[in-house]
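Structural prep section.
Before we set up the soaks we want a predicted structure of the protein with zinc ion in place, mainly to decide which crystallisation condition to try first. Input record follows.
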Amino acid sequence: VTGMFNHAPREYVCPFCLVAKGIIRESVHSRDSDIVARNSAAMALIASHWRPRNPGHVIVAPIAHYENLYDLPDEIGAAIFSLSRRIAIAMKNAYRCDGISTRQHNEPAGYQDVWHYHLHVFPRFAGDELYLDDNPNRLTRVEEREPYAAELRAALGAEQ
Ligand SMILES: [Zn+2]
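Run finished without errors. Recording the tokens verbatim:
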């Protein structure tokens, strides 16, 4: 699905579409093993790149390909909202974080760097400086993400 104000190059290999299909590529950091939950239209996975003091943050994305907020149908947006809320509560229980922040970027000027809509859900801790751009994002290893995924899955499984 392509829409207005799209920036993906013509032959774009979309990492989140690959993850949704369980396809592993050397160039793609996220894996389907990072997925902690799905619903009818959205998936939640541990992010590959972490902020320095917000380990194990989660990306919620539509399973189908939509580049940005402008293109996203309302019903898919509702599925993303619903999953992000479940993730936020699971993070509170699993990570014992002080708070939660969500961020979502559109177009290069909006800091978007993957051309498939995604919403970041961050665990927040007092003094974590999430919004301080001087702190670079760090690429994590799959094995490093696994315990966070396991904790979130357990918390999601315990909810009712
Ligand atoms: Zn995609």
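Observations: Residues 48 and 140 are 6 Å apart (CA to CA).
Flagged for discussion at group meeting.
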